[in-house]
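Weekly structure sync, notes
Attendees: PL (lead), two postdocs, one rotation student
Agenda item 3: pending single-chain targets
PL asked that the sequence for the first pending target be pasted directly into the notes so everyone works from the same version. It is reproduced below exactly as submitted, 310 residues in total.
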Amino acid sequence: MIIKIFETIGLRAYIASFGFSFAVIILIDFCKNYPQWGIENIPDIVIFWLAFVLFTLYVSYLQTQKFSSKLSGINLLTFPLVFLFFPIGSGLVFHKILIGILLVFSKYLFVNARHSKFQNKNLFDLSLAISVIVLFNTALAVFYVLPLWLFLNQKLLQVKSLIALIFPAVLIPFTFHGIAILFSAEQLMLFDHALKIDLWNYSEQTNAEWIWFGILSIAIYITLFKRPRGPEQFSEFLFMATWLYLSLIIGFLGLQIGQGRWLLSFIPAAFFVGIFIERTKSDASRNTLIFFGIVFMVLFKLFDFGVLTI
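Predicted structure, written out during the meeting:
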C-alpha cells in the first residue's frame, strides 16, 4: 500500500509526502518538548514543516533539470522517513539549511559539468557554491575535492578551466572580508573559521545515535555494492557518495559548527536509503520494511524521551 502511493511522481505522492513530513515533525517536536509541549509550539512546527516542503520542492525542481536522471517517487518518502531516524538536535538553523541547499545545488552543477557542453561555467559555479559554504565552516573546504576532481578527470587542463576552478575560491573570501564591516559582531559569529577537533567518543553515544549508525551502514553498503549503470546516474551517485564520506570524516573529527555532529550526513543518507528501498525486490518486502521501521522509531522516540514508560 505504501509503495503504491509513491510509485510515480504526482499529486498523490506529494500530498502523502508532505502529510507524512508534518506528522514526523509534530512527533519529534512533541517528544523533544515533553512534558511542556503546548499549543505555543505549533508556529515553530509549521515553519519547520514549510521549510521541509520547500526543500523537497527545490530538490524535485533541480532533478527535473537533469538530462536523464529524474526524481523517483520513493525519494518523496525517504526524506521524511530518514528524518524520523535522525538523532534529534537543535531546531531550525538558517546557515545549516543554506549549506544543505548549496550542496544539493552543487550536485546539480557537478552532474552538468560532466554531461553538458558548458563544463567551465558549471565548474566555476560549483567552485563558487563551495566557496560560500566554506565561509560558515572552514572544515567544509574538503568539498573542494569535487571541482578539483572534475578539473583533473575531465581533462579540463586549460587556463580558463584553471581560472574557473581557482577564481571563486579567492573571490568569495576576499569579498566577504571586504564587506565584513557591515556585519555586527553577533552576525559575524555565524562565520566561525576556527577548526576545533572534538573526536567522536564511543562511550558517549546515545541509543538514537547508534540507530543512526545503522542508517549510515545501509548508505555505505549501497555506495560499495549497488552502483548504478547510467552515466548521469553514476555522476549523481558519485557526488552523493563523496558527500556521505566527507560528512562522516567531519562527524568523527567533530569539525561541525555547533550541535549536530551527523547533520551533514542526513541528505546523502536519505538518498542512499531511497536506493536501498528501490532495490528491495518485492513490494511486500518494501512495505513491510517501511511499516515496521516507522512503528519501531515512533515507539523508540516515545520511550527514549520518557513519554511512555514500562
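Discussion points:
- Residues 1-85 form one domain.
- Residues 11-33 form the longest helix (23 residues).
Action: rotation student to compare against the earlier draft before next sync.
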